[in-house]
Amino acid sequence: MPGWPRGMDAPQVGAVIGCYSAIVNVDREDDRQRAGLCADCRHSRKRLSDRGSVFWCCELSKLDVRFAKYPRLPVRTCIGYAREGTPEIADEVVELYRPVGERELALIRESGWRAFPARLPHQPFFYPVLHKEYATQIARDWNTKDEASGFVGYVLRFRVRQTSLKAYPIRTAGSSNHQEYWIPAAELEKFNENIVGLIEVVSEFRGA
Ligand code: SF4
Q1: Nearest ligand 1 atom, CA 68
Q2: Domains of the chain and any CATH numbers
Q3: Which of 31, 32, 38, 161 for a ligand 1 pocket mutation test, highest count of atoms within 8 Å of Cβ?
Q4: Is 55 touching ligand 1 by the criterion CB < 6 Å?
Q5: What separation in Å is there between the alpha carbon of 28 and the centre of ligand 1?
Q6: Which among 7, 46, 105, 197 counts the fewest CB atoms within 10 Å?
Q7: Tens-digit pLDDT profile for the chain (208 aa)?
Q8: Whether the Cβ atoms of residue 83 and residue 41 lie closer than 8 Å to each other
Q9: What's the pTM?
Q10: Residue 165 CB neighbours (<10 A)
């Protein structure tokens, strides 16, 4: 066989493939030990530094402040984990709005602008809305007249992973742009985990 060193038996093709496969598996297993979930997450990028050390960079950190650019390894649990080969649609996000009063805004601020507070016992659903105009109407015309809202209305904007909304039909209350989701109170924590980025205040209205 041309090119094979003199004095050594040329390996059979199957043996060569088997050997390569073993090396790949060893590398992958080694990556799993060192990086945990990042080893086969499609959001991770494996990098080699100038000094030859290997590290993993999380691409989700560009979209969502909850993810570190260089995660502390090994990562054992992660809400952003998506195994290599799963469809990209898992990352699509939807922009939603929510009108709130002073008290709810304070609790959202306490969460670092990352989560909506748990519902009260008499509030069975959380109602994010699809259109800014609808949220504005509620904040301006209802929250500013409501004592429990502190006579102030805020319009909040946030983004959530599309896949997390699949279980909830869009409800229309009145006119066609009065569209909203009804998220059961018991599922709000899970809903919060799917918020991408920070919740932001886009408008503020004060009662007379
Ligand atoms: S999303 Fe999680 S598992 Fe995936 S690369 Fe980022 S930190 Fe690692």
Answers
A1: 7
A2: 10-86 (no CATH), 92-206 (3.20.170)
A3: 38
A4: no
A5: 16
A6: 7
A7: 333 333 333 333 333 333 344 444 557 788 899 999 999 998 899 988 888 888 899 987 776 667 889 999 999 988 888 888 766 554 578 889 999 999 999 999 999 999 999 999 999 999 999 899 999 999 999 999 999 999 999 999 999 988 888 888 888 887 777 889 999 999 999 999 999 889 999 999 998 7
A8: yes
A9: 0.57
A10: 17
